[in-house]
Amino acid sequence: MTVSDKSRQIRAAMRQEKAELVLKNASFVNVFTKELMKGDIAITDGVIVGICEDYEGVKELDMQGKVVCPGLIDGHIHLESAAVMPVEFARAVVPHGTTTVVTDPHEIANVMGTDGIRYMLEASEGLPLDVRFMLPSCVPATPFDEGGAALKAEDIEPFYQEDRVLGLAELMNYVGCVQQDEDVMKKVTDAVNHGKILDGHAPFLPGAELNAYVTAGVYSDHECSDLEDAKQKLAKGQYIMIREGTAAQNLKALLPLLMSKTADRCMFATDDKHPSDLLTKGHIDYIIREAVKGGVDPITAVCAGTCHAARYFNMKTKGAIAPGYDADLTIVDSLESFQVQTVIQHGQIVFDGQLCDIKTPVIDSELSREALDTFHLDRVSASDFLKEGSLPLIGMIPGEIVSKNCGYADGVDISKDILKIAVVERHHHTGHVGIGLITGYGLQAGAVATSIAHDSHNIIVIGTSEEEMAAAVNALIELKGGIVVVKDGELVAGLPLPVAGLMSTVSLEDTNRMLDEVKEQAYLLGVQHEIDPFMTLSFMSLPVIPSLRVLTQGVFDVDAWKYLC
Amino acid sequence: MTVSDKSRQIRAAMRQEKAELVLKNASFVNVFTKELMKGDIAITDGVIVGICEDYEGVKELDMQGKVVCPGLIDGHIHLESAAVMPVEFARAVVPHGTTTVVTDPHEIANVMGTDGIRYMLEASEGLPLDVRFMLPSCVPATPFDEGGAALKAEDIEPFYQEDRVLGLAELMNYVGCVQQDEDVMKKVTDAVNHGKILDGHAPFLPGAELNAYVTAGVYSDHECSDLEDAKQKLAKGQYIMIREGTAAQNLKALLPLLMSKTADRCMFATDDKHPSDLLTKGHIDYIIREAVKGGVDPITAVCAGTCHAARYFNMKTKGAIAPGYDADLTIVDSLESFQVQTVIQHGQIVFDGQLCDIKTPVIDSELSREALDTFHLDRVSASDFLKEGSLPLIGMIPGEIVSKNCGYADGVDISKDILKIAVVERHHHTGHVGIGLITGYGLQAGAVATSIAHDSHNIIVIGTSEEEMAAAVNALIELKGGIVVVKDGELVAGLPLPVAGLMSTVSLEDTNRMLDEVKEQAYLLGVQHEIDPFMTLSFMSLPVIPSLRVLTQGVFDVDAWKYLC
């Protein structure tokens, strides 16, 4: 901040010159007094310079009949999960009043390592959405993952120099933390020594382990699905990120937190937001609406969507409507119906019924080329999916991402809904293909494949025959990533996700249209309607979720922590 | 923080090894859930590593029948005002449960400049009291002051490198700030750019000016004596430091803040604490007791004395009893009577009925010599206090530090309680002596003088004759600072304050005994009992308080902002 910038803001505050923008006659949420206040809000240089006094502005907006809130903040998201580039994500969420998101580029880092982090930093620069970063702490998720990269403490440490990096992202490896694994401890102490924040991820971590985890400096958790678990964590000093996203919805279970003395230690997060969910429900505005419907005081709900996150992340000038704060504002019709009318980001009107022009950030060409070329494997053939003898049988459970261990079976039997599942390594030309059987998916013909495959993002394929599986994987390689449905060896629907195999290059609406189409085709081929054909599939290779998973080297028993074949 | 330190703490948290100290069966204040909780508190390496689980300790203390609170924090104090060295201050306040103070070395900086700041940093290093610093922002207080130093932005900026420096101290020059004075703006932006805190000092600053002041980044105020003034400031984002010290007591007026939704934006501060006040009342513990007596919920009162200050100052690991937090703990008999039993600082028992041994910090010898040699003036004689013609007459008001403009008088007239007052420049051998008359003080014989004279700390003297005044000033020069009472040219009582003319080198008790003696002698010589003979006097040269003040160059009309003679 320069003396001349700050002096100009003060001149506007003093009415020695006109403010750049004045919201006249505003009713606004004062997060300090926790009440609605009335009066002008004056803005200059992207900063709020005055409230509750009469101001004249070069531009003035009448706020009669509306309510001005601080801009909404998502405390934890993986932007890649929206399957679009950050610029498209911004286009989608700005009209919902989101002005800041804290992203963990964990997905792309599993594909591209630190280049993935750099890519996301560049791809989110200068948007009308403030994108802050937490550094992926657990790449790969386990030693059994064959991902695109492995990030050690020394790989991520230099990123703390970046202005938009707030800390270390969800420390999923809580076991490594409480057992004092050297690299985990290095990541922890680096974050602390840089004065940064450490996000947690430790569902139901009990007593002494939770003490140890928090002692490490992990002061948040977004994995609470249970009120008692959340209360334990609150009592030990963790902020609770109440998650209401696509893959997990915890608001209902945690609503009582927002009606108690601990409300000020709670914020909102989505973790994953998929295209259709963003388009149909909204973002943080949706969570606020749901909380209010659930009986939460609207001002408390707004605070959870704004200032509590700002305080936790030490974003000093965000989350409030007060002098010196960033002019990030979300203007709604009323606190109860919370329909976003106008959005101001850094003092600029970025949505007013109409979205402002958004310039696509320029990404370093070398990095961009690298992101568009992340499939390092040869075409496959049916024989790659053959394996002698019986194979472990994974049982999918409708509406869940956990799976059952269903013993062994001899091979595909469509009549019994026994299909073949495989994970094809795609990062380092290893030729590894892990093969198993799966039941509960329902496919009757063809094959489906996706390169969104947590967390290593290899290629997962399920098919009714080895030939169809090979066709699906080859179609996906052709697209350089995405989601495909194949029948009789031909592509019947495909969503290209050429950026690291995770993100499309088109708009959220178009991406969603294609995603609907691949889903529709998957259902037409018999996939059970209780299952999301690709989201559920995308977790089938994540070896931290019980019971059986398919990895690049075979079927893995998570409970026994070993390969079955 | 090193990996091995943090790993050791985690091992203790995990019960893989014994904690160094365990408080067994503790009832403790959980500032997050805002309730009393029960259970063990385990400490290793000065850090709380576990709560609410059974722990074994190398040392264990039974907490039955006691309540454990976070260590108490004073949000704003000038340590020099206790008239003793920081080590003696620590000896006095640790038994009252204070574990952290945030000091502004404004007094000594007016005498010794940046060397004064360095001196206080060294003099408070390694105490069983965490002394944090705010950098003096307004030295001198006005352009009319002739102090020992003038601190520009570039003089104080290097101190932001010091670990214990938290920000820029009370920005008393709010006029300079809202009028964008170049040096003030440089100080403001330096603090912001270093990610530091800016304390305010702006009683009753109205509307747009307050907006401008807060826009600068000033997010606290400790000058509120009026509830409405405090509410305005809270609404604009300032934290309120509820001040209850020796010179000003605002708790009663501001109690309602602690019984409203804004309680979490309030903390406690003393600003100035004089020896007798510390000895008879206590410190932050006293304010908590008074607040509770006034009807404040005891847990809210504890939060105001602990975590709210920690949060405002971004002292991330202070102010709570939770894993990873500093083991600064104040153990009391009950929340209601709040009598301190035991104090733990950085995991060490520093008071347990008995105070621990406290090592006196070693101060650089050059700096020490400089601090003991701050009287740069020659002996004075009666003729130095003579001035032709009539002189402005200052009216003292019992119980106030403001004064009245009583016109002019011709000279001393003891029968009418008209005495001579003078301020003798003592920093730079200028020979300046400002002379006026004063009424309302009551002295009937002799003279009194003090080198505690806000803010420049020249020598203020009041006398019944020029000879007595000269004797008093010479006695004070002899002592190298302090407070003296003289009768018939002879010293009748004296408190030596040889360190910068502000602090004694003996204990608080001894200092207080001598202070009582000089006061007693002053009262014996006729000083009105409604007036504190030296505290009131010490403000008579501070030209920001209406109406008349004596400066080194004459009587100053604060309302008219000019010299009268």
Query: What's the end-to-end separation of chain A, in Å?
Result: 60 Å
Compute the average pLDDT of chain A.
Answer: 97
Helix content of chain A: 25-40%
Treating each run of at least 4 consecutive H or I residues as one helix, how many helices of chain A?
18
SS-derived structural category of chain A: alpha/beta
What assembly state would you assign to the polypeptide chains in this entry? Answer: homodimer
Low-pLDDT residue spans of chain A: none
Overall 3D form of chain A:
globular
Task: Provide the gyration radius of chain A in Å.
Answer: 24 Å
Strand content of chain A: 25-35%
Tell me the number of strands of chain A: 27
**Largest β-sheet summary of chain A:** 8 strands, mixed
Largest binding interface between chains: A-B, 64 and 64 residues
What characteristics describe this protein?
homodimer, 565 residues, alpha/beta, 8-stranded mixed sheet
